Structure formats: structure tokens, C-alpha cells
Amino acid sequence: MGTYSSATRQGAYEPFDLQVARNQVDGHIGLEIFGYSTAIGSTAQGPMWEGQTLSGGLYVPPSAAAPLVLVSDSATDNTTRSVVIQGLDASFAPLTETIALNGTTNVTTTNSFLRINQMSMLNSTNTGNITASISSTVYAKINAGVGQTQMSIYTVPAGYTFYLSYVQYDASIGFTSSNYMIAAEYNKVNTGTNSGRITLLNQSTFVQKQEVPFTVPVDHIEKTDIQFCVKANTGSPFTVSMYAGGVLIKNPD
Fold it and tell me: Are 241 and 47 within 8 A, CB to CB?
């Protein structure tokens, strides 16, 4: 479709962000990333997701695309309940699959996933904990009763650029404490001359809450693994949530 323009489409009085949300601007998709963990420690920086432990550490994605094995630890999550998986294929192209659960019996996706950006329940809240694994390694999890993954992790699809405009962290740490949290964004680019390199994009400290509205949106090129991470300077465990928002824009053809 050629060059995707960020000019407004529906008149000067409707906010551009609203036009994007209404799918009125070609090639523009509003993107929200949300992470939550009750197991944040002081050992190492790590993203908020259901598999995080007090030891921290960066999330390690699959090394190759493969089918996912999904299973619940509750028989109530039976064939009447389905999970929608949103991720990327071996070429980093967007890939979505809906798969029916079978309680505590494994079910396997038809498609092979290289990345998982989100999993969510389609038609009911889950009773048990649902995991998605490759060769017994868990890469995503929906905690019981939550209905979707809560991962401060995202990989930019091939052919797109993600423009990050806002980040917020909230932590269960009081102003009277001598502790503080350290927030950081780590990026790994999987294309070009810097492929495979992990970069610390930014880092800052906060107590209880941090809000970062970027004056100019920060671009993240295609095939970039993004991890919004946090750790405490001392003490644990802490509960931390984070939110990141921006626009995913299709690259020119």
C-alpha cells in the first residue's frame, strides 16, 4: 500500500489517537503492554511475567519456532474453553491461533510459534493455571482466574515499527522504606548488523510509582525483543506492575 502516513484522516477536531483506535489511519495499530508479578527480588533485573522468580533474570524466548503445548492444572478448563495465542512465526510475521483446552490433558497448536506476545481466554475465565510450553520449558502462563497473560515482554513483528510513548511502573514499596526499585528496558534486535545484541535502552530508580511520558515516541524496529524489567535494590518479595503504550506502524512497502 506504499507509504503509511500518520496524517489525520477524519477532520481537524478528532484526536489522532482516537482515529488510530477507530482503525481510521491505515497501517497504525494501538499497542498496550501490561506486566505483573508478585515475585520481584533484588538479585537481577527481569521482566514481569508469570514465570518470574525472586532470582530475576531476562526472559529467554524460544530459539526456534515450534508448536506449543497447552495444559491447565484444573479439569474444569475443558473443551468448552479456548485460548487465543498471539505471537510470531519463524519469520517474525504475526501469527494468531485459537485452541480448545482439554483440562489437565495436553493440547498442541497446529502452528509453530517463535514468539508469544499474549495469550487470553476466548469465552470464559480460566479456573486453573494454564501453561504454554515447548519441550517442557514454559514460555507463557495464564494464572488461575486472570484470563490472560501479564507479560512485560513484546517482540515487534517483521514489517512494523513500534513507537513507544508512555511507560508506568507501580510497586509495593513505601516512602518510609530505605529500599527503591530500579526500572530498565532491555532490547534485543534480531536483524541487521547488530542482530543478537542485547542493549540497555534506559534505566532509572523510583519508589512506589514511576511515569514516563516520552516527549518524542521512541522507535523500536522490526524483530526487536523488548523487555521492561525491574528489581529492588534490597529486600523481597515485592509486587510490581507496569504498563507501556504506543503505536505499531507498518513500514513502507
Answer: no
